[in-house]
Amino acid sequence: MRATTFLGSRRVMSAIGQGMGGRPSAWSIQQAAPASPFHAAASSGGCSSSSSSSTAPSTSSSSSGSLPSGRPLRARLSRRLSTSARAAAVEAAPVPAAPPRSEVLTGDPANNVTDYIYSKMGTNLHLQPDHPICVIKQAIYNYFQANQPGLFKTFDGLHPVVSAHSNFDEVLVPKDHVSRSPNDTYYVNADTVLRCHTSAHQAELLRLGHPGFLVTGDVYRRDSIDATHYPVFHQMEGVRVFSPDEWTAAGLGPTEFAERELKAALEGMARTLFGANIECRWVDAYFPFTNPSFELEIFFNGKWLEVLGCGVMEQVILDANYPDGSGKKAWAFGLGLERLAMVLFDIPDIRLFWSGDERFLRQFKAGDLKAKFKSYSKFPPCYKDMAFWVSPEFTENNLCELVRGERGAGEWEGTHYGRVGALVKESDMLHLDDDVRMGIGGDLVEEVTLIDSFTHPKTQRTSNCFRITYRSMERSLTDDEINALQDRVREGVSGELKVELR
């Protein structure tokens, strides 16, 4: 399950009426007030605000600003530093490298980060100019720069290891929220996590006094396995702070003004990416850190698609962090770059972003938003079913972590890894080739699906049957290697998750 976050929700809380509860929509408001730099873009095409009905959102965790010590931008910046000195420290950050292994795989009792996850750190897909993730990122950066030159500072290299306080508390995630569970979040220790989204840096950058900023980086979540979900993906956070003279000049209240500016900016961005005539609609949502909150949907290829989450920032966040924040108002948004790239470029499987295959990478070029992915191969899948009586230790996320992979061969200490790790030994993996040895299944696992579940009427024990789909994007898999993988999955499920195999 995902925690409530700008980027994690697949559904929204409730239906809304036209505009905001009967008030004029952002589209009609902007006709009556002085236009922001974004309004020309927002009104040039067929994009209009409309309403939608939906159900409650699925959930996912939040984020941070202050960062653990030892590397640029994760040192706890002293409150005694001047704002200018602290800002210089942030902006001088180098291109991010993978953190030291000992910083992430700590052996702490609370640590549930796997070697598979650690192997993805420092890859920086968002900094590779011709990679589709970077193509989308740069198009959004260019849009905001063109509309308000010099206002939005961009941050691409903030450290992904953050404090749990900044990841949750500073963005008002409740103490009992599901996102804090190690079933959803990767913990380095009880007080430190791998950021769950780029809102993790919101409070820190507000404290530095930036009136506008865009943060892009890799984020980490324990999640299901299918074509659209991956435990590492890329998000962008955007924030804009306004002063009283801006909403006074527009003849609007602070919240109404921030909402109008937010919607104008994001409708214009959607049209930049998806075309001038794209149809948009705004859906009421809930996020702990914004109020009111919205999701932007676009009508693309015959269906409505969620693009991003956003809202007017909760005033307590601004008051606590931004210099003289009590007299200001702000909006914030978050979006997933993989989600946009898959829609825009017709990319069918999220694993392709990580493949490194030149047949994939050479189809995309910096600045080209018109590219469409052309499939170069489709190797056959291999299905393996596994039925078992569940245990208290079992969750679907734990199963997916185990199936996807744990510590890679050559890195084993022969012991169980963390509270939700898998018991797999190096000696069991040596006959498999490299792409299989990065854990149990690694990126050969295409999907894990619950296909049957029942509860015994007498014992009240629950039995689940999961289907694991193995498929390589680069070669045909052999029966021997898949059978060996499945044997290790069964051993891990039985030994670590304490289930009774059937």
> Helix and strand string, N-terminal first?
HHHHHHEEHEEHEEHHEEEHEHHEHHEEHE
- What is the alpha-carbon Rg in Å? 23 Å
Q: Give the CATH level 1 class of the largest domain.
A: Alpha Beta
Main β sheet profile: 7 strands, mixed
Shape category = globular
**DSSP, total strands:** 14
Query: How far is it from the N-terminal to the C-terminal residue, by CA?
Result: 26 Å
Structural class: alpha+beta
Give the count of helical stretches: 16
In the predicted model, the low-confidence regions spanning at least 5 consecutive residues are: 7-34, 44-93, 407-438
Fill in the CATH topology of the largest domain: BirA Bifunctional Protein, domain 2
Going by CATH, the homologous superfamily of the largest domain would be Bira Bifunctional Protein, Domain 2
Main-sheet strand order equals: 1-5-6-10-9-8-7
Strand content: 15-25%
Q: Approximately how much helix is present in the residues? A: 25-40%
How many discrete structural domains? 2
Mean pLDDT score? 79
Catalytic activity: tRNA(Phe) + L-phenylalanine + ATP = L-phenylalanyl-tRNA(Phe) + AMP + diphosphate + H(+)
GO molecular function: ATP binding; phenylalanine-tRNA ligase activity; tRNA binding
Enzyme class: ligase
Protein name: phenylalanine--tRNA ligase
